Amino acid sequence: MKAVVPRVPEELAPLAGALAKLTSLRDLDLSHSNRVTGDELAQGARGVALAALLHGLTRLEVLDLHQNALGHAGALAVASVVKEMKKLQHLNLSGIAHISDSTRARAAVAALADAALSVLSSNDHLSSLRLSIQAAGLCTLS
C-alpha cells in the first residue's frame, strides 16, 4: 500500500521547494518547529504540514523532530513519511505528540511504533531511536 502524500500548505511552499532541491541533504533538525498551542486540530494541521515537508527526503540519515506538537493527524502523517526513510541512522521523535483523547493517542502511538519498526527492519544502520508521546489516560511511551 502506497503512502498518502500530505499536501504542503501554501505558506510553506518556498521551504518545501528548497528542501526538494537539496538532494544530498543527510541531516535535518526541525526540533521545536511546530510549537502550536491550542487545540489538537490546529496542532494536527501543522503536523501534517511538517510531514509534507519531509516527503521525498528519503536519503536522510539524521532526522530530529523532538518537541513538536503534532497532534493525532500530524503523528499519523509523520509516521507514514518516516516509513519511507530507509537510510536513517538517528531518529528522534521524542515529545512529538500531546494528545488528549486516549483512543486517538493509542492510534498515534501504534502508527509511530510501526514506523520505527519499519525503519528498523529495513535498515541495519539505525543506531539511535528516541520516541516518546504524552497522552491522556496513557503512561508516557519512551
β-strand number: 5
Uncertain segments are none
Q: Write the H/E string, N to C.
A: HEHEHEHEE
Q: How many helices does DSSP assign? A: 4
Major sheet description: 5 strands, mixed
Taking strands numbered 1, 2, ... along the chain, how are they ordered across the largest sheet?
Answer: 1-2-3-4-5
- In round numbers, the mean pLDDT is 77
Distance between the termini: 28 Å
What is the percent of helical residues?
A: 25-40%
Q: Any idea what the radius of gyration is?
A: 14 Å
Can you tell me about this structure?
With 142 residues, this protein is of the alpha/beta class. The chain has helices at 13-21, 40-54, 71-82, 102-121, and strands spanning 27-29, 62-64, 90-99, 128-135, 138-141. Helix 3 (71-82) runs parallel beside helix 4 (102-121). It is globular, with a radius of gyration of 14 Å. The chain starts with 12 loop residues before the first helix and ends with a strand.
